[in-house]
UniProtKB/TrEMBL annotation:
Coiled coil: none annotated. InterPro entries: DUF58, vWFA_dom_sf. It holds the Pfam family DUF58. This is DUF58 domain-containing protein. Residues 42-243 form the DUF58 domain.
């Protein structure tokens, strides 16, 4: 699985998304083991370039092994991708990637997987200036539209108003909602939106993005921290604050995870310093559970 910084260095989101998705599937089956009761005469191992619509997704979810079906009826779903494009997503990790950069790669890879499976895929970019919304479609031109919207997305400002968000939950449609966000909120606004989306669609996969330097507090010496959404600044000595930072961060992460699961979200914390492996695996499992 290529690292996120190598994928980003391609400067080509369609290629990076494809490499990430197919690299995960290829790497996942390298150490495959035949299980009892499987009719392997009906399957063959996945190879990069194969049509992903022929993958046995149920088998993949159970075993993390990837095989193509010889004959089976595909099921399709609606996948609604949601990107948090508020200013805090501009936070850079030590590898040079911002949370927004990582989210672009991640959602691009998930869009590729869903489109190859025949799913209708849509995208909403949350931005204070207004929503950028591409309704779910399954046609061949949808993937380039999604890539262009992700590539041109810029993080700025604070969370959209409730009036701006209202059209997202006005229509009830069964879908898998996948949200990439850092969960930095002023007043639980992301939590309220996802709660409404879950009521309207049925399933929410919440991918909580944290930079590696936030998780490890790898800062040194005198540092000026700036709230990217409010502009508020705080000067401190990172070496002196490290012991205090870590337990407070872990307390917040635990509370965030507990609250998300209490609302019925499928919650996963991700580090922008790590490959996209975990998020892709959880997406495939959740997609299969709805199939």
């Amino acid at each position: 699985m290529l690292s996120p910084e190598l994928l980003h260095a391609l400067h080509n989101l369609p290629l990076a998304a494809k490499r990430a998705a197919e690299g995960f599937l290829h790497g996942a089956h390298l150490s495959r083991r035949k299980g009892a009761g499987m009719e392997f005469s009906q399957y063959r191992p996945y190879q990069p370039g194969d049509d992903l619509r022929r993958l046995d997704w149920r088998l993949a979810a159970r075993s993390d092994r990837y095989y193509l079906r010889e004959s089976d009826v595909d099921t399709s779903l609606t996948v609604h991708l949601v990107l948090d494009a508020t200013a805090s997503m501009n936070h850079p990790d030590d590898n040079g990637l911002t949370k927004l950069d990582y989210a672009r790669l991640l959602l691009g890879a998930l869009a590729y997987l869903a489109q190859q499976q025949g799913d209708a895929v849509g995208l909403t970019i949350l931005h204070p200036a207004g929503l950028r919304h591409l309704p779910p479609r399954a046609d061949a031109r949808q993937l380039p539209r999604l890539y262009h919207a992700l590539e041109t997305a810029e993080a700025a400002g604070t969370f959209p108003t409730q009036e701006t968000l209202a059209p997202l939950t006005a229509r009830r449609q069964r879908a898998l909602v996948v949200c990439a966000t850092d969960m930095y909120e002023q007043d639980a606004e992301m939590e309220r939106l996802l709660t409404r989306l879950r009521a309207a669609s049925g399933e929410v996969l919440l991918l909580h993005l944290m930079a590696g330097n936030e998780l490890n507090f790898s800062f040194r010496g005198a540092v000026t921290f700036e709230d990217l959404e409010t502009g508020q600044r705080l000067q401190l000595n990172a070496d002196q604050q490290r012991a205090t930072w870590q337990p407070q961060l872990q307390q917040w992460l635990r509370a965030t995870a507990q609250q998300a699961r209490r609302h019925g979200f499928d919650y996963h914390q991700l580090s922008t310093a790590e490959p996209l492996t975990q998020a892709i695996r959880e997406f495939l499992r959740r997609r299969d559970a709805m199939g």
